[in-house]
Amino acid sequence: MYQYNDFDTAFLTERNAQFRAQVERRINGSLTEDEFKPLRLMNGVYLQLHAYMLRVAIPYGTLNSAQMDMLAHLAAKYDKGYGHFTTRQNIQYNWPKLRDIPDMLDDLGTVGMHAIQTSGNTIRNVTADHFAGAAADEVADPRPYAELLRQWSTDHPEFQFLPRKFKIAVTGAEADRAVIRAHDIGLQLVEQDGEIGFKVIVGGGLGRTPMIGKVLRDFLPMADLLPYCEAIVSIYNRLGRRDNKYKARIKITVHENGIETIRDQVETRFAQIRPTFTGVDQTLLADIKAQFAVPDFAEKSEAPFTAAYDADPVFRSWADTNLTAHKAPGYAIMSISIKKHGDTPGDATAEQMRAMAELARTYGHDELRISHEQNVILPHVHRADLPALHATLKAHGLATSNIGLISDIIACPGMDYCALATARSIPVAQQIATRFDELKLEHDIGELKIKISGCINACGHHHVGHIGILGLDRAGVENYQITLGGDHTETAAVGERAGPGFAYDEIVTAIERLIAAYLDLRNSPDERFIDAYRRLGLAPFKAALYPAVNAGGKADAA
Prior knowledge:
Elements: H1 6-27, H2 33-41, E1 45-47, E2 52-56, E3 62-63, H3 65-78, E4 82-85, E5 91-93, H4 101-109, E6 127-128, H5 143-153, E7 168-171, E8 185-192, E9 195-202, E10 214-221, H6 225-239, H7 250-257, H8 259-273, H9 280-290, H10 303-311, H11 313-322, E11 323-325, E12 331-336, E13 347-349, H12 350-363, E14 368-370, E15 376-382, H13 386-395, E16 410-411, H14 426-439, H15 442-445, E17 450-453, E18 467-474, E19 477-484, E20 496-497, E21 502-503, H16 507-521, H17 529-536, H18 539-545, H19 547-550
Helix pairs in contact: 1-2, 1-4, 3-4, 3-12, 5-9, 6-8, 7-8, 10-11, 14-16, 16-18
């Protein structure tokens, strides 16, 4: 993984000192909150319902054990003993004191981490496939390109005050594990005539106007990555609306101008600026690639894994659910669920973070990943070591066997923390997970993506959930809308609203009716919920959600 050089370290030191002075001016009253707001947002500091919140960048979701230990240290020393992993592969601390935040940033700097551009109308943390560098199906590791984009976009003088925030995601495989079609720019590594390049997708995004991105280029040569991305953001910076923040994202720019117009303008701008890129970026990329060398994989007998798998049904269930094929013989990608039934999705305690760091040091070639689905991954684990790993995970409450199942729910912080939220997300996720654990149905249900947002901003990605839940305020009462048929993968789709919303005390029962209908309607246990929905359409699921209407009654209005 990328290691900071002297320039990076000096840059962070200066930036943190600058922010420390700004914090002191806010505390002594020299700056009002309105004056302080743009300064704190440039450094990842929000003002939430109850306290300031610090969002720390985990670029493309990759970190080592020392960095995970530092995240645990911040949680224990400056917060309430835990952190919250987000859908942008970041971590949030919800309870720091403002005066402590500069110390937190200095501590992060000692392990090559920061909070720059995790907020504000700028290019945010670049995200990537959480299995990058390990997945058996990838064309190439996308992380070096994500790192190149990170360095290019950090403090880019032209792009610090864009019309709205701007998000880039990169994947190295056809199977989309990075939600690239719901990003402002989505990049997929592809091979054409023996050359590696990029499919470029633009104009995706969720929020109050969800849209699936459109292909801007089927193949972009690798050497053109930075100038082409710069051309895209330049055109957006010029055309993007600043008169209405709800219409300021690039998805609206693409929609209002049309993809052909955007393509023509991007290609014209690209032709103008391409000669100014003299190859320095490719020299830098070569240096970055060298830091993402494949680990020195070990050769061991898989007998310990086989013995545990045959003898221990709990281990077998976990292995079947939480392991993914690795490109190296004898290895597996191990997903650690941060979704224990009844817990807050994405929350990890300082003690759990330290445990995961130690496992990465001991068994995982010192690498960890954070997924956009709010889980933690050890990407390189030999199968021989998995029984010992599983035992340690159990001891720390991290061995839940539910990756990809109904209780592996994405949920934003909702009204428990967020000043923008209009309804609670966390309790709904907890109740759904607990209910289906009680019913002992989730393994029978199989793969199912539930995503929950506490407001229209869609931080919980509800639009692209197989089942999406959106919490809204209806005359001071929480009301939960359900969308069906969303998909965040290479077959991306925005879900369809099922009908009127449900009260807080009705939503779990409604989901239970929906799942019962799916189990009755599916062709076989191998037919996933999303496949059954695509085969049958909305009607039978809507009938299950609103039985009174189906029986001739009248549903309550949302």
